[in-house]
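Translate sequence into structure tokens.
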Amino acid sequence: MRTKKCSILYLMLISFSIATAQYTDLLNSNRPGFSQGAFSVGKKVLQFEAGLGMGTEKHNLLNTETNAFVMDYGVRYGIFKEELEISVFGTYQSNNTTQTIGGFNTDYRQSNFKSNTIGAKYLFYDPYRKRELEGPNLYSWKKNNKFQWEDLIPAISLYVGANFDFADNPFTPEPESTISPKVVLSTQNNWIGGWVFVTNIVVDRVTTDFPSYGYIVTLTHTPTDWFSVFIENQGIKSDFYADQLLRGGTAILINNNFHVDASLLINFKDTPSLFYGRVGVAYRFDMHDEDEYIEEKGKAGREKRKAEKGSKKKKKKRNKRKDDFDDNEGDGG
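Result follows.
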């Protein structure tokens, strides 16, 4: 059965567009995977992401079988700069559980938010912007269309947020209501042929008695302009919950601002074993009113901006002299 599940995941198909260093015409969503890409949605872009899921959990030690219903949501907004976005993410889960002890069954229900997080993500390194400024190699089509060592250098962003957990919540470790930090370091490689590789290093709830550490790696492929597939591995280590999760899924772009997606999830243990299916959507309100490119950083960026500023001053000075000459000629006539 496990082999069958794995086969389904490999055949199933993430989030659609390959983001670039500036605002893009196509939707840039994290769905249906759980990793965060390095790039933001774009300045003045408001984006909603949501999904519904159903699954089963079987715990061999506790002799429980659970039917679960899950809702997840995300709201993202690009603010101030192309590199920056603010966001709200959350997951709500409702479980109907049957526990068997000594031949007797006990049914009970649990429901609450598994997570509610408010935070911001900032792209602080983008190698693709520098390559775009340099332009393509005019002497070698082959070099522009094959893998190069510099393709291994990823874009890097940092997400910092706060978890808001409620009291008496069966899905969170603390018995009381708490606010705790969450930090995610994201890297993203965009490779030729429609391949995107994303990694997340996650540090969560470190101020509580049950800190959590983990990673997510996601590989996405877009074989066509409207269709993408992904596979994802997530590792979680905590005294409250530890697991290895495998996801796979697909996303279909309906138009530039809207996509639908589907995915499956399994894990590799029986305390509990998990099997979930999920469907979702992502939609954006595109209020981006101009093409705003991310400025090149460092010494090269400073020198370029200085040169552009000097060029503008010279142009303005030339125009002023020309205007003065025209005015004098008019008076003399």
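Note: The chain has one domain: 2-294.
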